[in-house]
Amino acid sequence: MVDAPAPLQPLDEDWQRALCIVAHPDDMEFGAAAAVARWTGQGKTVVYCMVTSGEAGIDGMHPDECRAVREAEEVRSAQVVGVDVVEFLGLPDGILEYGVPLRRELAAVVRKHRPDVVITGNFRDTWGGRSLNQADHIAVGRAVVDAVRDAGNRWVFPEQLTDGVEPWGGVREVWAFGSPEATYAVDTTDTFDAGVASLEEHSAYIEGLGWENWDPREFLEGFARPTGSRLGTTFAAAFEVFPMGWGD
User: Is 170 among the domain residues?
Assistant: First the structure.
């Protein structure tokens, strides 16, 4: 007899500013856009930061062309869920490496936007079971957690502290959507349609994947409905929560 999945706890929504840092255009839309639509609908500010422009993501399109296409798709998809600021760091797609250079880039973004929470994607080795995660996701997620701590330490990357830039230690938690270790979730029942519409803006990327008869709504519902059942709602998005306070 297989045990039923454990119930999920509601996320703390007592915050005002979130910064979402992910590896590629489409990462937010495959995992958390409906949650973002909920938060912007509450009047919260959400900013997107794409570490790459996803330029290696379409086999039949040269990276120089692909970069522009995918950036435009991401900007449109962000607007669907109420996000007006999308930044692209322009690091190389597919070959990101965890380490000090990536931490430095991300710490600068955190210091610039000064969020209460930072959101990233799953950076565990798998999506659960035998489904392997992608290397860029792992590198970015690991670097996000460290960069959030780096951002609060004035003696780490001190060269960034010019022209009024100050350390920022105000990030309370990092949330990783889609993690197989998730124990928290947020109700996305009322904003699920917005999440689907946001993913649909990535039409060139989805077409380039070559998935026959693939339906964005069906795909997202396959995750959102079972997650919702663990939260006691129709649809939900799951997150692993990493507290950033001392001793947490």
Answer: yes
* Coil/strand/helix, residue 233: coil
| The one-letter amino acid at 84 | D
Q: How confident is the model at residue 248 (pLDDT cuts 50, 70, 90)?
A: very low
CA distance 160 to 165: 7
One DSSP character per residue, 136-202 reads: HHHHHHHHHHHHHHHHT-TTSSGGG--TT--------EEEEET-TT--EEEE-GGGHHHHHHHHHT-
Find the domain containing 103 and state its range. 14-243
Read off the tokens for 246: 């001392």
Asked whether residue 2 is domain-assigned, the answer is: no
Q: How confident is the model at residue 247 (pLDDT cuts 50, 70, 90)?
A: very low
CATH classification at residue 155: 3.40.50.10320
3-state secondary structure of 50: strand
